[in-house]
Amino acid sequence: MRNVIKLTGAVVAAAALTLGLGACSAPSDPDTTDKNDANAPLTVGATSVPQAQILDFVKKNLASKEGLKLNVRTFEDYTLIDPATDNGELDANYFQHKYYLDEYNKKEGGHLIPVVNVHLEPMGLYSKKHTKLSELGSGSVVGVPNDPSNQGRALKLLASKDLITLKDNKAENPGLNDIKDTKGLKFQEAKAETLPSSLPDYDAAAINGNYAIPAKLKPSKDALAIEPVQGNPYANFLAVKKGNEDDPRVKKLVKLLNTDAVKKFIEKTYTDGSALPSFGKPKD
């Protein structure tokens, strides 16, 4: 899908120890960042859709007007991005929501913080076998992400549609053990990025918006159920290592990512509802 880049042993080791997964793709520009130069390029790691697409729009249309040199590194494996940001190989990243970041910081002793919300990718429940939510019932097999933050998100979506009952409806990251009543549903855990290709194997699967896009799933039309936008805590944001939030280059990118031009780009590009503008300061 994209060319493979070489990472330093530190990042590979961190990723292997932390999350045990693979390869990322090449940056569109060489990494020439000098951390002591406020005019040096800012290198941002991102997943390809829609994050890298949004960053590329900023790079091509807005960055030069603010005097910002922007490098975009696109990763196939998102589990490598936070470690690369934590050890300084990336200046910032853009691919995740707060529950995922909180889980990373907690488990790996990370020091990353969110600085500005950009968009929301609503999670949807999709099926190749059923056309109505009411067709799911006892014995139906549902695919859910195996990482804690997105699994919790999937279970909260199912609970909101009365497909399951949780022990605590206010739990931030419920897991399969936190289901009080499955109502006969059976669950299979899988990597979030594999669920679209495996969708025919399930009666339904909870799929993140960024994986729905390349799989040609249209949330506004194809989802049996979808998260609400209003008050949704899963906005994707720009993140940096704590202490770098005052970097003038970061401040320039923060400003650009919340412009009307970016809002219009998101709305015009992702007309299927797979990505929606969600600007502002991340919640604590």
From TrEMBL:
Membrane topology summary: Lipid-anchor
Record-linked SUPFAM superfamilies: Periplasmic binding protein-like II
Ion transport as UniProt keyword: no
InterPro entries: Lipoprotein_NlpA (IPR004872)
Signal peptide residue numbers: 1-25
Pfam families according to UniProt: Lipoprotein_9
Domain of life (superkingdom): Bacteria
Record keywords, A-Z: Lipoprotein, Membrane, Palmitate, Signal
Family: Belongs to the nlpA lipoprotein family.
Official protein name in the record: Lipoprotein
Origin species: Streptomyces catenulae
